[in-house]
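Ticket opened by: R.M.
Priority: normal
Category: complex prediction / small molecule

The reporter submitted a protein together with magnesium ion and asked that the result be attached to this ticket for the collaborator who will pick it up next week. Submitted input follows.
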Amino acid sequence: MLNRAQAFDALARLLTQVAGDAPAAVLLVRVQRMRDIELSFGYEVAESLAHELERRLRDVLRPGDTLVRTGESDLLVLLPHLHGRAHAALAAAKIVRALQAPVSTATGDVHPLVLVGGALCPEDGDTPELLCRRADRACDDAAVNVERVAFWRAPPIPLEAVQAALRAAITANQLQLHLQPIQRMADGRIVSYEALSRWTHPVLGAVPPALFIGVAERSGQIVDLTRWTLNVGLRHLAELRRVDPEVRLAVNLSVEVLQLPGFVDQVFDLMRLWCVPPNGLMLEVTESALMRDVGQCERLLAALRAGGVRVAIDDFGTGYSSMAYLHRLPVDTLKIDRSFIQEMATDARARRLVGTMIELAHHLGLGVVAEGVETPESLAQLSALGCDHIQGYLIGRPAAAEDVVAAALASVAAVSPGR
Ligand code: C2E
Ligand code: MG
Ligand code: MG
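Result attached by the on-call engineer:
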């Protein structure tokens, strides 16, 4: 690449503009047979062809898009604020159409042969280097595709390989813990943090939690993973409680782990180890997992609660729990799934549904956390509906636990510099 530094700078700027629901695309536009054209038509013709293609490309781009020439035959296009993968594919197809039209030169018409390889941010990568490599890799697929367009596709990885890599990562302490704040509506205070595991594999890159948690659950590694999350989470909570002694930690619990003999005692042992009182911990169990074996879950959750640990039903609204169970289950909080919160913005029925869930929770004496709050409008609606707590990108994205603790300690140092 001739212009890598410039391209990476532009890409890094683009990455800062990527919003949760509006992905960006990196397209590598490659003109093929450039050397052939140089040798058949002359260097001057090849050069004016390159200029003409660049001009056409600029013509089809939107005002906020960026174009960087990265090589003699390569142009990098950065498209922010897309509606999704299909939108990026349409843009790529439009580029191919505009660039493939013949170009008249003094020595006759030249038929440019163009291909476009693309990668989406953040889905396919979130660093300039990775996005460029993946768009480049997609160019190889585009070359054998009649449409002349291809997007990066994750290579299928054998499940056993993921299991082995995850086992190695847990053993070598290579997972990271992120914390996401949960805010109390009444006074805007951050009253707890949810612990979310992250795994970045040296080759696969960032593995989505939904994928590796599923793998861990099926292979039994979820036990070690949960122990790791609890241990690291409580260690950070102990630090955070030096700043705010009331703050809590929420940890996701797979039912497989809850059912492990001795697990309840292990939770209390860990809390003693980190000198965190039981009410500093909230365990989240998804509604669908709970419903698979209500009887046993009920007994084990009751034992945790008897010791002072709080319990929440996670992703509430997606798991078909019946009213009878809800009344019986030993829980403190319902976390309304983010799909309802996100639909609320445009759908009055979803709004009524959320209102009903909040009322139901309050009637049963339970607290409510709304998940996935991304906009001030959702926050206002939830406040009007009487929701107790909110979690989502609007309040804060999950961030490395070390950074969250450092920021909390720095905020106290700033208020009382003598401490
Ligand atoms: P969850 O417990 O429902 O966690 C909330 C998920 O919503 C997180 O996804 C979080 O990043 C995402 N999120 C938070 N706010 C927003 C928002 O405003 N908009 C959108 N679009 N998303 C938001 P993440 O980190 O990918 O985790 C996915 C699931 O993986 C979690 O869902 C949880 O069930 C599971 N998980 C993560 N870490 C662990 C773990 O250590 N142990 C277990 N057992 N499960 C875990
Ligand atoms: Mg959760
Ligand atoms: Mg959830």
